[in-house]
Structures
1.
Amino acid sequence: MDPVGVAAAVPPDAGPGPAWQGKCPWGAPSTTSISCSLADVMSEQLAKELQLEEENAAFPEVVAVAEGPFITGENVDTSSDLMLAQMLQMEFDREYDAQLRREEKKINGDSKVSISFENYRKVHPYDSDSSEDEVDWQDTRHDPYRADKPTTTPRRGFVGKGKDITTKHDEVVCGRKNTARMENFAPEFQVGDGIGMDLKLSNQVFNALKQHAYSEERRSARLHEKKEHSTAEKAVDPKTRLLLYKMVNAGTLETITGCISTGKESVVFHAYGGKSAAEDKVIPPECAIKVFKTTLNEFKNRDKYIKDDYRFKDRFSKLNPRKIIRMWAEKEMHNLARMQNAGIPCPEVVILKKHVLVMSFIGQDQVPAPKLKDVTLSSEDMKKAYHQVLNMMQQLYKECNLVHADLSEYNMLWHDGKVWLIDVSQSVEPTHPHGLEFLFRDCRNVSQFFQKGGVAEALNERELFNAVSGLNITADNEVDFLEEIETLEKMNEDHVQNQGKKLSMFSSDGDPPIYDE
Ligand code: ADP
Ligand code: MN
């Protein structure tokens, strides 16, 4: 610390030194250097530093593994004991619940009157908030927001999570083996005297311990070569890491290799797919994990997309910000599913867990496909891309009943000789109160990009808008054009007001809305 700065921080009326110094019967003390002045101690800065230190002690950020993945089945970076404790607790709780269920079954047998142990079930703190609001739809074939299919999925009284794997292996034998295997952990890893006892560790608990032991080994090995914290490490909070850890643990993902992109609203990671945990799902060899950021500021200005989306209207008012963010992830999942159904090239949804969406990776060998803005296409490819994009916009509108609402060369990837659409969390149905304005903006981006790119036949934004929407707005300048768009939107709103329900705007399954009547 700068000593001059410290001196300057002392208020001028404090004099050259403390008052007692002059009167001290043993004379002035020799110039002891005061390492920390009162002003220093009192400073907010210091308080912050101490706070930070404390936090770091509780959640030490482990140095990035420069040479490899940061979460794999082999090496789960359990960088904090707290986290490990939570993971273990979770596994224990799960087993406890499973045991409870077995006992419940045994007691009830064939009896007509059954008793329930429901109240005795443990709910893990990290899971506790999920029981009421977690959206774990892995079945993307069912889009609960479809106009023709109102949500009828009954909410059951129980925490319907996962299958209890009733393993064929003998738990006792397996458990003993696991306990014995703990001996293989590094010597400095404290395993207690469990080895000597007849302790039976389940596979899950053993694996968690094993992973911790290994990561501890690696950690101490690389402690002195401190490197920059990786973006990947920093980008996710402990809760998200736990979610990712669970996915690796469940075998859905094999390895999470690192960060592809850090945006304002999301962080995207690359991962290698696992060996398919779910029965019928084939997990793509490479996956992209989109983590919607749980810091809320950036999402505030996106309210308009979702607040006015009738699909979410009933839910929006009741939701807290954390749930709203999950809704973005959910929205992206359903929108991707619609696009997939229409055959539009886009990532395929693998799994959704809270605010984490796993999808197929567009690219190869960890290298993401370039955005249209970054790739230099031959004029022939450029032309091809344009026609494909025009086609996709029409499909999106007519078949998926969607407007991308953030379509530009930033959200189109060039892969395998064609354009892939991504980033559809903000996409809305055309009847959204601002849906047509969003569409117009999309059209402007696309039109400008391809016109600048030298595609002679590229329609201008107004022509493109009509071509996509099937509307016939004749205004020949942007101001009038937009005015007509807003009139249409207004008409639609009034119609909704009169009918009371927006559903009436749809003639049948997934058809485009009727604007002109
Ligand atoms: P944001 O809202 O942050 O723009 P995006 O969905 O556009 O989120 O993702 C950010 C970036 O991550 C993209 O520009 C793209 O480079 C990369 N990306 C996203 N999804 C995938 C995917 N499925 N395959 C490959 N790269 C992807
Ligand atoms: Mn994007």
Note: The chain has a mean pLDDT of 73.
2.
Amino acid sequence: MSDTVPLRLFNSLTRSIEPFTPVHPGEARVYSCGPTVYNYQHIGNMRAYVFADTLGRTLAFKGYALRHVINITDVGHLTSDADEGDDKMEKAAASLGKTAWDIAAFYIAEFKRDLAWLHVRDPYRWTIATDYVPQMIEAAKAIAPAHCYELPSGLYFDVSTVADYGRLARATTDEGEGRIEEVEGKRHGADFAIWRKTPDGETRQMEWDSPWGRGAPGWHLECSVMSRAELGLPFDIHTGGIDHREIHHPNEIAQNQAIQGFDHDHGHLDCAQNSGARIWMHNNFLIDRGGKMSKSAGEFLRLQLLVDRGYHPLAYRLLCLQAHYRSELEFSWDNLGAALTRLKRMVMAIAQLRGVPSAETVRNNKLTPLLAQFDAAISDDLNTAVALTLLDEAVGTKKVPVDEKRAVIEAMDAVLGLDLLTLSRADLRLRPAAATIDEAEIEAQLAKRKEARAEKDFATSDAIRDALITAGIEVMDGDPLGWEWRLD
Ligand code: AMP
Ligand code: ZN
């Protein structure tokens, strides 16, 4: 893709849209905060990865060589973002009678399956926090003399030792967002642990020796160390959910300032210049008024539940793309159903393009403007909602060379990740887990019904229809989508 329209992105650090200028010409280096693997990810979490993936796909579309890192936190994240309370991993392990390592392996596999379902591409590197502990200890040792102090519970970062602490969160005091000081001896409410000592007389499943005693790294330190190890400081873009703008990312920034000060051998570093990443991007939340997204509330909204109810995962990806990533997005089954219908329409409208080779160049005067407008929309801080309407237009074009039409749809879909040219109508019809009748049986009954109707035997035809309704099958005569039947 030629770089005709410059890419512009909203930077949370400046709260403004800025042109993207890579640190390393031609490359885009991106770090995304990943999950803490003590439980399943809910669909709100998955919105964060759909966003990061769409950003990565856009950077590739704009011609940058993408180096994307997503971390997996398998140790050290406490039950509050301020890094206080119990260790989430150890707590989950204790409550399930398993090792923390088993818990991590299990939820990593579940997470990766959800990502694959959503067509989130594998990053250049998954960084697993426990693989980087020696580097975390080295980083803590390097910054400790100028920036940290030790308490009985761990090594704490003094937020007053860096310039502009909390600038990302727009916090007005060095107490951050009015957090309550829970650890005795902390100099400021916003000070946070970069090393947490295992309390005397206890053993953790995951613990390491350090100059501050046996213990585990702080969650914030993990991301600073892994991003620097894989991307170098400064890198281009750091992403995460909007909640991270308040505590986790300001703390990463403070550490990055300290680390870079150490690298360059000078003290106070300006936050805007030395935050570690040039652009900080945050996706807004998926909201569920039914309260099913709280992991503590028993069954919660995860992708598996959508699939069990017969919704294809890519309908959820489409739902995400219909909203701008910086807007809140309200989840409802109706909205998801509408997204599924939109996806079906697109898939059916281009079914005949599946076997067609793509044209090398697009010259058609109906198609070229659509591609240019698509480029403009996606380059405008990832306006996926507008980009989707342009995809709809491309799908609906008539009397254009099919190979060029396919090339345009392929280019757009490479950014949106909906797999339009591979999916079939049948792929989109999932069987709800609760359904008791199988598809072959439904198709057989429908064939019998068709025969009966052809013979004008309406009594038999109606009886078959009634039996199907009883089994939870809605027969859709005259359905404009040609869908024929649906499990209710
Ligand atoms: P966690 O596993 O809690 O660290 O969250 C993983 C990612 O999901 C982080 O980037 C969070 O900011 C993000 N996130 C959490 N809840 C939501 C939500 N309801 N909507 C969108 N993103 C979320
Ligand atoms: Zn992080």
Note: Residues 33, 223, 248 surround zinc ion (ligand 2) (CB under 6 Å).
